[in-house]
Amino acid sequence: MLDGLRCRLTPGSDPEYQFYTENIGFGENNELSYSKAEKLFLQDKVDILIAYCNSANAEALYQLAGAFQKPLLILDAGMQLPQEKASPWCYHITLQGLHGCRIAGNMSGTGNRNVLMATSFYDGGYRGPWSYDRGLSEAGGAVCGNYVSGYRTAEFNIDQYISLLKNTEAASVAACFSSYLAELFFNALNEKNSEAIPVPFYCAPFMAEEQLLSKCNFPGGEFYTVVPWSSALENPQQTEFTNSIRQATNKAANIFHLLGWEAGIVTIALVECGIQSLKDFSYLSPRGKTTIHPETHYTYAPLYKGKIIGGQHGKCALQITETIPPDAGMHIKVMSDQPTSFMSGWKNNYLCI
């Protein structure tokens, strides 16, 4: 993320930007995050604070940003729902993870299908499965079974998943995995061959992250997904972005670079026009036109339907098939659709494992 931010801000920049960093670990300790943010405001005299946080952890910093009357930009995977009202000093650049899960859930349930929900011990502690359920229910589908994997590599297996497939009459699988757990799941499916993949899968956005997929064995079968961005997108902003990251880091751009890059775009707007300019602010991103909603203070942008297919050397690859235009109404629907009962979950920032 810092590389993406630097790449967007530093080339020939005027004014010259200085960067100060603090480590908040997994982000689950709100007292630590608060003290680090306070130190940056008080000691380092930063003008803009940028943090990678999920919604709840970011909201613990709202009061601090308001007290100093300095902007806080939150970079977020978008796998949690806001609990506090928007702050005039705080804005979220999100990858819309829950929005993608809801659309994938809708796809999995279309035709009144029975859907097997498959997730990891880690991913199940966020709101991905909840958003899947909301989407598939809207399409007339119903969850017929729940599989939750373990998280220890040596003990990982999908025996319970295979049993549920055989005994629940599932017509599709809603799959919500990320990071190394997605790799373990794909590889386990590959080992079980056709026994594990008789029905189509509808995968969460971060299960289809391209650099992750390049490490996963493709098991065959049908895998569909909804993602916030792909390296295959073609537009001038994408070309500038990917070339800048490659030149600066000698690496291919990824979604974390994208978050930092977009933070740079918003930072320039803040410096030039002030925080009042961010309400309903739109900008051209490598993922398409991105807008900060004036009510939620979260971004919404195009999403992309895709397929996970066999790639080089038997690994997985992402193929984009369709653009889903940005939809302010759907953004509000996803962000305001809160669980009516208490839901427990992990506090660490998503993908910090």
Question: What can you see in these coordinates?
Answer:
This is Leucine-binding protein domain-containing protein. Pfam families: Peripla_BP_6 (PF13458). It is a single chain. The protein is of the alpha/beta class and 353 residues long. The protein folds into 2 domains: 145 residues, 3-Layer(aba) Sandwich (Rossmann fold); 159 residues, Rossmann fold (3-Layer(aba) Sandwich), CATH 3.40.50.2300. Helices cover 36% and strands 20% of the residues. It has 12 helices and 13 strands. The strands form 3 sheets. The chain has a 7-stranded mixed beta sheet with strand order 5-4-6-7-8-12-13, with helices on both faces. A 3-stranded parallel beta sheet has the order 1-2-3. A 3-stranded antiparallel beta sheet has the order 9-10-11, with helices on one face. The two termini are 16 Å apart.
